[in-house]
Design goal:
Radius of gyration of chain B: 45 Å
Oligomer: heterodimer
Helix content of chain A: 25-40%
Number of strands of chain B: 9
Number of strands of chain A: 32
Largest sheet of chain A: 7 strands, mixed
Largest interface: A-B, 95 and 86 residues
Order of helices and strands of chain B: HHHHHEEHEHEEHEEEHEHHH
Helix content of chain B: 40-55%
Number of helices of chain A: 21
Structural class of chain B: alpha+beta
Strand order of the largest sheet of chain A: 19-23-24-28-27-26-25
């Protein structure tokens, strides 16, 4: 709401400058968005909270100032409201029949006819006032209704009496399909939920929202019917929402006006119309008010106030705060106050706590002391939350960046990434059509990040995200939410640097004492592949204490059919690792060599074990023996490792693969695997004989099981 | 050293000289040793020969011969040591030159190890949550797709109330929505747990709005404390502590009245603008203050819904936007940057 500083001064005295006023209003809970100097006046742009419909007027704001200055309002005793001399004994009922059909949607309806009106331009003081309030001047009659609305907070509407057909005003629901050409020039189609004002034949206004064009006051209008009513806030809001209109009127009705203030507003408007528009004959007021508004009485003790606020406010303070705001206060025994809520606050103040808020607000939040809560509380760790942190930490240590992506998706991207659309959750009112689903997989999200970066010449990516995916679970039920940990690498595992450009990779490894990344059986290449990501996942699971899972050939549609792994634990697949399916890469215009992993975090969390026990450091030296074998290429590495471990069980400390070879030096269809086996006995130094015995046993087993041939050095 | 001619023994004399020569490691020391033995005036052998006059004449030739023999051997030993030292020195020089040949250009850039990083939102979120965890709050979470009941009705936001305008909502169906705030978790926790209660709820929320300071998905942290003696002054204490920990102990905090349907009295918490120190700038719209938190005493209506006795218990709740805090902390001017995940952005934090 725009608040004119000079205009406000007509209703209450105060010594604040416009800036001081803005600061005071902020402290009272009225946020000031802007101060604008307009000639000799300053206009303050106030952001009112939705509960303060009573403050959408000069008089409302003046009451707030009164609460902090204790100066009286200047309008209450104003004689300008005295209309007795002008009142003719003209009976409205002789000219118009008002019938209130929907008292629930319109608890009170008042109307008055004023005859002999001369419609024309407003005097400049009037149009100036309205301009400061951001309201465009139309003509003197309409401007007066708006002026009174700004002054007292009551929207009024003036009809051209001559255009009302059949001498009737009916407050009723619209019938389906009825239309109204409104003052904004738009024809609205109405529905039966909407309350309208109708004459004998048609709707002439949308109650509380907007008037009809045909029955509006315009030049040439001589007789007006002035309406001032209390419409049901919810109904006004629904109508305005449904039709997409917001007017000064609907804005106030939605927030609730003062049902007891209608007559006052009628009289104020009438007085101005008589003065400014030459109104000659003023009829009596019709006041349809079937069920009188009941005043709210609230009991309150200072103890209760202080218990909630942590203050030491007394009865005098409370009176000093509430009385200027229009509250009636009676002191009863036992330090108890009986508080009568003014009618203009009947919507927002109905309970003890509402009164306490008023007290706190005017007392000043800055005067309320600062303390720390006493009392006990349960100290407990949210394990799942902590574990998510731990997992992120591990991945960050592995050189991965965390990303956060929008949880939206679309049928198109799901189709492109071969993810089923059927169980995705549909958003009814998406911001953009290509974001109309909640993500059911994070694969499209992570690919989007890769695309974004590759398009900006960043090629070496190691990223992960821990977020939820959403799976529909029937229309009535909330969708299932599953947490997924996804990661991806694209491009080089280590970005190239000046040194790599100058040296061969072998030199590169030879040169560094304590290799940057320890050499392994693959060692020679830096370009990342599946094993890099597999290693990251294995490391992650190891650090989280997850063991006893199997790595099997995977069958995820988004991944390369022969280059993927699924992680299985107790017959449940809880993760996948693999290369992005080349078809998808092509479709999304992505380069090859993108690897992904996806872990079902909710499932994983149950298996995490972060307990650690210290193991004594070995006292006796280890013995290392290497073995290189030639076997058929379809025998998997893990089969071989298992044989070695089983055969040497007690003495084996570690088995590590350090070379894999296939090529010219060995027959086609065969491969060579080279293992370093570390033997150690915890209680004594191993003798050569002991080692030889086990080592030979292992070689025998390998020969017997796989027909392995021993390779020399 | 004082050699007595009378007790002169070739063996003892040579063993001693040999040991001394052997211990020499420099030319200087070797020269000193040479003067000590062979010096023309003070040398040991010169001294010995001078003592010859005290001997009976018949012993003189024998003794003279002995002295000369020892002297010859020592002379040889000294010469030999000289040669050894020479060749050793040559070696050292050679070695040094060799090392110099392997000299590295120390100005070449270091090979930077690759660090991963947490997303800036996660960092700020962690910082916020950690502060409240230290204040005794416990982390709670709830669904992101939520029943309209928990998001609105149970929080005293009835349908067709203007308060719903504060939330531009994504709808899945009439009763199912994307949560517009983390506040529904308050209700879910209170339905299950009895006071005393201190919870902190981090999470993603959704609003149908997008511009440089609004994102359709963003992060909130919600807090709730319920106990028998909780007051508005406690709310001020906890939130001032929080602001001072996250923005620095010098930061001015302001509480001003506001309205939320699920708290009463409600407050908006401002901090002195971190960009201009409260002097007024574009970021704070020339007010000197930045709004960072919404808070208030839990409305008795909310307690009624979860069957808490509002004559016995009081409590406060608060909520804040993580992106907003991160933008202020890091000086980020566009909220979209958080969700583009451009590496050039992510590596800055």
């Amino acid at each position: 709401m725009l608040l004119s500083y000079n205009w406000l001064k007509e209703y209450i005295d105060f010594d604040f400058s416009p800036q001081e006023l803005a600061a005071k209003l902020t402290d009272l809970g009225f946020e000031t968005a802007n101060l604008e100097k307009k000639g000799a006046d300053t206009v303050i742009d106030l952001e009112l909270t939705v509960n303060r419909g009573d403050c959408l007027s000069m008089i409302g704001m003046a009451r707030e100032i009164s609460a902090i200055t204790h100066n009286p309002l200047k309008i209450s005793s104003s004689k300008t409201f005295d209309l007795s001399k002008r009142l003719a004994s003209l009976k409205l009922t002789s000219m118009l029949n008002v019938s209130l059909v929907e008292p629930k949607l319109c608890p009170r309806y008042t109307g008055r006819i004023i005859d002999g009106v001369k419609v024309g331009a407003s005097p400049s003081w009037l149009s100036d006032r309205l301009e400061k309030a951001g309201i465009r001047s139309i003509n003197n009659v309409v401007d007066i209704t708006n002026f009174v609305m700004m002054e007292l907070g009551h929207p009024l509407h003036a009809f051209d009496y001559q255009t009302l057909l059949g001498g009737k005003i009916i407050i009723c629901r619209a019938t389906s399909g009825e239309k109204l050409l409104a003052l904004d020039g738009i024809t609205y189609e109405l529905s039966p939920e909407m309350l309208i004002i109708a004459d004998a034949q048609r709707p002439v206004a949308l109650a509380g929202v907007i008037g009809g064009e045909e029955t509006g006051v315009k030049e040439g209008t001589t007789t007006i019917f002035l309406e001032c009513a209390y419409f049901n806030p919810t109904n006004v809001r629904q109508t305005a929402k449904q039709l997409g209109i917001q007017t000064e009127s609907s804005y106030r009705f939605e927030r609730g006006v003062d049902p007891e203030g209608l007559i006052n507003a009628q009289n104020r408007a009438t007085q101005l119309i008589v003065e400014i528009c030459n109104g000659k004959d003023v009829f009596d007021i019709v006041d349809d008010y079937p069920k009188k508004f009941k005043k709210t009485i609230i009991n309150l003790t200072p103890e209760r106030v202080n218990k909630i606020l942590g203050t030491s406010i007394n009865i005098m303070d409370i009176k000093g705060i509430l009385q200027p705001l229009g509250f009636g206060i009676k002191e009863k025994e036992d330090n108890c106050l009986q508080i009568e809520v003014p009618s203009f606050r009947h919507l927002d103040i109905t309970r003890e706590i509402d009164v306490i808020e008023e007290i706190a607000r005017v007392y000043g939040y800055d005067k309320i002391p600062v303390s720390l809560p006493a009392g006990s509380f349960n100290v407990a760790i949210n394990r799942e939350y902590e574990l998510a942190d731990r997992a992120k930490e591990i991945l960050v240590s592995c050189g991965f960046y965390e990303v956060i992506t929008y949880a939206f998706s679309s049928p198109n991207i799901l189709r492109q990434t071969k993810i089923p659309v059927t169980n995705a959750v549909l958003i009814n009112n998406p911001l953009r059509e290509d974001e109309n689903l909640m993500c059911s997989s994070l694969i499209p999200n992570i690919l989007k990040v890769i695309t974004w970066n590759i398009n900006r010449d960043t090629y070496n990516l190691k990223i992960f995200e821990l977020a939820r995916v959403f799976l529909a679970d029937g229309e009535k039920k909330l969708p299932k939410e599953k947490r997924i940990l996804i990661g991806a690498i694209a491009g080089n595992y280590h970005p190239p640097n000046w040194r790599e450009l100058n040296f061969t990779k072998d030199e590169y490894y030879d040169m560094i004492a304590g290799n940057f990344r320890p050499p392994n059986w693959r060692d020679k290449t830096i370009l990342s592949n599946l094993y890099d990501l597999k290693g990251v996942v294995e490391k992650l699971l190891l650090e989280l204490g997850i063991t006893g899972y199997e790595l099997l050939a995977g069958d995820h549609l988004s991944l390369h059919p022969s280059r993927q792994i699924k992680l299985v634990c107790q017959e449940t697949t809880f993760g996948i690792i693999g290369e992005l399916h080349p078809d998808i890469a092509e479709e999304l215009k992505l380069p090859g060599g993108i690897y992904l992993f996806e872990l079902d975090w909710d499932n994983l969390v149950d298996h995490v074990n972060l307990k650690r026990r210290f193991k004594l450091l070995p006292k006796y030296p280890a013995v290392r023996r290497d073995v290189a074998i030639l076997i058929k290429e379809d025998i998997s590495c893990v089969q071989v490792t298992k044989i070695i471990e089983d055969a040497g069980k007690d003495l084996i400390e570690k088995v590590s693969l350090f070379d894999v070879y296939q090529g010219d030096k060995i027959p086609a269809g065969y491969k060579s695997l080279a293992y370093a086996i570390t033997y150690r006995k915890p209680e004594a130094t191993l003798t050569d004989e002991e080692v030889n015995e086990v080592h030979n046993k292992i070689i025998m087993e390998l020969k017997n099981t796989f027909g392995a041939e021993l390779r020399e050095g | 050293m004082k050699e007595e001619l009378t007790s002169l023994s070739k063996e003892a004399c040579l063993v001693k000289a040999e040991k001394e020569i052997d211990e020499v490691i420099s030319f200087e020391a070797l020269e000193k040793l040479r003067i000590k033995y062979l010096g023309r005036k003070e040398g040991i052998f010169t001294q010995l020969l001078k003592q010859m006059g005290n001997l009976p004449p018949q012993e003189r030739p024998e003794t003279g011969k002995l002295i000369n023999e020892i002297k010859d051997t020592v002379t040889q030993l000294l010469e030999k040591k000289g040669t050894t030292l020479k060749s050793e020195e040559a070696c050292l020089v050679d070695e040094a030159q060799k090392l110099m040949r392997g000299k590295m250009d120390i100005t070449l850039p270091g090979i930077l190890p690759e660090l991963g990083k947490l997303h800036p939102i996660t960092k700020v979120l962690k910082e916020i949550v950690d502060i409240f965890v230290r204040l005794g709050f416990q982390v709670a979470e709830g669904p992101e797709i939520e029943l309209s009941y928990y998001n609105f009705d149970a929080l005293n936001i009835p349908s067709h109330h203007p308060a719903r305008d504060m939330h531009d909502t994504f709808y899945v169906s009439k009763d199912i929505i994307l949560r517009t705030h983390t506040s529904p978790v308050q209700i879910r926790v209170m339905e299950k747990q009895k006071p005393p209660l201190r919870i902190i709820v981090p999470g993603r929320v959704y609003r149908r709005d997008a511009d440089i300071s609004h994102s359709p998905m963003f992060h909130q942290v919600e807090g709730l404390l319920v106990d028998e003696q909780t007051t508005f002054s406690d709310l001020k204490g906890i939130l001032s502590t929080f602001v001072h920990l996250i923005f620095g102990s010098e930061t001015d905090v302001r509480f001003r009245p506001s309205f939320f349907p699920f708290t009463e009295p409600s407050a908006e918490v401002d901090i002195a603008c971190v960009i201009c120190d409260g002097k007024g700038c574009g970021v704070c719209k020339y007010t000197g203050w930045l709004e960072i938190l919404g808070a208030g005493m839990v409305d008795p209506e909310v307690f009624k819904i979860v069957n808490y006795d509002s004559t016995k218990y009081t409590g406060f709740a608060f909520g804040l936007g993580v992106e907003r805090i991160a933008m202020l902390k890091y000086g980020i001017n566009n909220i979209r940057l958080f969700f583009e995940n451009d590496m050039r952005f992510l590596e800055q934090f």
